[in-house]
Design a protein that fits this description.
8-stranded mixed β-sheet, 5-stranded parallel β-sheet, about 35% helix, alpha/beta, 14 helices, binds ligand PMT, 2 domains
């Protein structure tokens, strides 16, 4: 799997003759499985049509900050948050000047100010404009602010001049962008993580669920993405933002979670089951809201849900399987029996009888139970703990 697969790439195209190469760049990003959205400046639209870029990216092209229709689809702040990486190619002298000056006078500059994703520019302009001290000063400013600059190349230019200012090849831009995406022990590895509770419907307005907030699974997804993995997070109903660089699939019930997990784990290297999946669901789901009757006691018959992690572990070409064990007693003993019964490679056991760890807490304390022994990890914030867990899990891949 390519490091850019499933990553959200925002391509900004400004007004230079090299804009035609942005079509090829869009195609290359799509070719490695990236999700692409294009922002075209007014000057960029003089060189390449939105229709071409829409066809190549598979998404509507964003052109104006104040276009109500575009804003309805995805507002500019949402777009800035959506991006895992912004690449402006070609980046003209004018764009560099406006961006270096902190201006937000069009959609692209506004996005660049509003994002916390890495930003890269592939400059393209006449050689004299590139050498101009004002452009060089803007370049220095942008570099000092952490903006990545790819190129420019040198050679014959469209205007007939020769010298620096040619946009580098789209294949080189793609490779440089891949290097900007998190680089770590899980590079090019595909990780599937389940998180949160499931909801098992009783009738259209009631359900059985549990206190899982999704925090542990979401922190694991974030840590895995930071370690370079391509992460699919299958989330039960929780109100947490999607971690950067993570592809999220929302589900409600255990059966939906299983369906999503089976699809996502086909190509996966690692599967982590952090979700608190309901073991049982109502046998019948009432079509209409159940009315209160005269009876004092009401019975709901439950039927067993599929065991998601055991099902994936039983597949012939299975990923490395990591489960959790949420226990209130006999932590290690019960975790070890889950390791064997569900066919897992590692179980992360947590004591959910304590209020300050486990369910819906910001901290957790776990014992790693593997085939050859146990390793306790002390109480820590779920974010810190997730990083330790991902580091440990990535060693199991070696
Ligand atoms: O979400 P938070 O508020 O941050 O809380 C984190 C957590 C306590 C939910 C998490 O750390 C945790 O322990 N998750 C697993 C909870 C659980 O349901 O454990 P279990 O012992 O019942 O299940 C064992 C393993 O089988 C788990 O990996 C679970 O995801 C999986 N399972 C369980 C039942 C089922 N039908 N299918 C499953 O895949």
């Amino acid at each position: 799997m390519h490091r850019l697969t499933n990553r959200h790439i925002l391509i900004g195209i400004t007004g230079g003759i090299a804009a035609y190469k942005a079509a090829e760049l869009t195609r290359l990003f799509k070719g490695v499985g990236a999700e692409v959205r294009v922002v075209l400046t007014d000057a960029g639209a003089e060189f390449i049509t939105p229709l071409t870029l829409q066809a190549l990216s598979g998404n509507p092209v964003h052109q104006s900050l104040l276009d109500p229709e575009a804003e309805q689809g995805m507002g500019h702040i949402e777009l800035a948050r959506w991006a895992d990486l912004i690449i402006v190619a070609p980046a003209t002298a004018d764009f560099m000047a406006r961006f270096a000056g902190g201006m937000a006078n069009d959609l692209l500059t506004t996005l660049c100010l509003a994002t916390d994703a890495p930003i890269a520019l592939a400059p393209a302009m006449n050689q004299a404009m590139w050498r101009d001290p004002r452009t060089q000063q803007n370049l220095e400013t942008l570099l000092s602010q952490g903006v990545n600059i790819f190129g420019p190349g040198s050679g014959e230019q469209a205007c007939g001049d020769t010298g620096p200012g040619r946009m580098i090849d789209p294949t080189d831009i793609l490779a440089s962008c891949a290097n900007l995406i998190a680089n770590g022990p899980l590079n090019e590895k595909s990780v599937v993580i389940t998180a949160g509770p499931t909801r098992e419907a009783i009738d259209p307005v009631r359900f059985i669920s549990n206190h899982s907030s999704g925090k542990m699974g979401f922190e694991l997804a974030s840590a895995a993405a930071k370690a370079g993995a391509n992460v699919t997070l299958i989330a039960g109903p929780v109100s947490l933002p999607t971690p950067k660089g993570v592809r999220r699939v929302d589900v409600e019930s255990a059966e939906q979670m299983l369906e999503a997990a089976l699809v996502a784990s086909e190509q996966a290297d690692i599967f982590i089951g952090a979700a608190a999946v309901a073991d049982y669901r109502p046998q019948l789901v009432a079509e209409q809201k159940i009315k209160k009757g005269a009876e004092e006691v009401m019975e709901i018959l439950l039927t067993k849900n599929p065991d998601i992690i055991a099902t994936i572990a039983g597949q012939p070409e299975r990923p490395l399987m990591i489960g959790f064990a949420a226990e209130t007693e006999n932590l290690v003993e019960y975790a070890r029996s889950k390791l064997v019964r569900k066919g897992l490679d590692l179980v992360i056991a947590n004591d959910v009888s304590q209020a300050d760890i486990g369910f819906n807490a910001d901290q957790n304390e776990v014992i790693l139970v593997g085939p050859n022994g146990e390793l306790p990890l002390p109480k820590a914030g779920k974010s810190e703990l997730a990083e330790q867990l991902i580091s440990h899990i990535s060693q199991l891949m070696d």
